[in-house]
Amino acid sequence: MANHGISAPKQERSRESFNRVREATSRFLRERGTADFTLAEISAASGVSIGSIYARVSGKTDLLVEVQREEFDRCDSELVTALDRAGEISSDISLEEAVSQIVEVQYESLRENAGVLSAFMALGATIPEISQRGQRSFVAQRGAFVHALARALASHGMRASTEALEWCFELTYSVASRQLGLGVTPGNVPLSAASPRVIVTRVSHTVLDYLERAGDTEPEALGGPAGHA
Q: Do residues 197 and 103 make contact, with C-beta atoms less than 8 angstroms apart?
């Protein structure tokens, strides 16, 4: 059985060895923020011979595609769960606090996974499979963010167009990514000296201000605040 050039190991010992290879690859990506390492380095870090690695993959690109799939599946799942929770509790706090929590969830996901994301952003420029998986992740995260923000507005008797909500995601994602230096600076060095709390507060205020000034936020129809989506 093969997946993106991966020959799936059948024996438990082989599976454990390949797990160590993937874990070592993920660790390098997180620590370095780039894919500037060799299979020889992965071999040394994982304790798996080069020959055994090549028995599973035809080259480094296939290994990176597999690791990206695993990492992005994990990131997407964790983020969707966290955003859903933020949207769920939005009726118990002010709208400003609810928006701040949603923005913070998105920002922290990017910050915690900065090394992996930065590396794959660079790789996506030359590896179509990585670019395509990145786009799917972006769409999934945008949908979860929009859903959470819509729930927050609805719980406070407000609503906004999908276009406006998607722009709020674009704003949050773009500002957070740049402030963190994702795909911008060598070694993934943050561009901003501001603390995460300051960045989240500024972005949250901008999101609320945009929705109000753009005239895209309006009261729900008669009958009071809408229920949770």
A: no
